[in-house]
């Protein structure tokens, strides 16, 4: 599967968006539980265990630049699903940020999911970006 990338402009500061992203429990409504393993959240070298509906996955962070960007990835189903992702925050003005979200899934089951449900990753990235936009804009308005 080729990486799926979405870019949205958010009416919030990079700091507000980063604070939201750093609260791992808020990321995805499909996450049933989150357990910090190492690093205390979205820190370079940090990792956490995410319990989804059908499986658990350990997610690792790398190349983290606070309030700017982070790469993360992991695997599930014994390594049969491998994923990599990237968040980037580019300030556009005092209270507007361009948010880039990229996600790629591979591995034997990841490829199979891509064939059977080709929109799964695309829909996930689009919904994730939309959630991050709406929730962080709410947080920014509340902070003003």
TrEMBL record:
<protein>
    <submittedName>
        <fullName>Uncharacterized protein</fullName>
    </submittedName>
</protein>
<dbReference type="InterPro" id="IPR019587">
    <property type="entry name" value="Polyketide_cyclase/dehydratase"/>
</dbReference>
<dbReference type="Pfam" id="PF10604">
    <property type="entry name" value="Polyketide_cyc2"/>
</dbReference>
<dbReference type="InterPro" id="IPR023393">
    <property type="entry name" value="START-like_dom_sf"/>
</dbReference>
């Amino acid at each position: 599967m080729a990486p799926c990338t979405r870019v949205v402009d958010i009416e919030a500061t990079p700091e507000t968006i980063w604070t939201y992203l750093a609260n791992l429990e808020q990321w995805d409504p499909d996450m049933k539980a989150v357990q910090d393993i190492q690093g205390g959240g979205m820190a370079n070298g940090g990792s956490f265990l995410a319990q989804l509906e059908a499986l658990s996955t350990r997610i690792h962070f790398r190349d983290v630049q606070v309030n700017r960007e982070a790469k993360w990835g992991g695997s599930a189903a014994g390594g049969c699903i491998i994923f990599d992702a990237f968040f980037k925050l580019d300030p556009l003005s005092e209270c507007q940020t361009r948010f880039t979200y990229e996600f790629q899934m591979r591995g034997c089951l990841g490829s199979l999911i891509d064939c059977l449900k080709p929109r799964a990753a695309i829909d996930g990235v689009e919904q994730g970006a939309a959630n991050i936009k709406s929730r962080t804009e709410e947080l920014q308005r509340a902070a003003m």
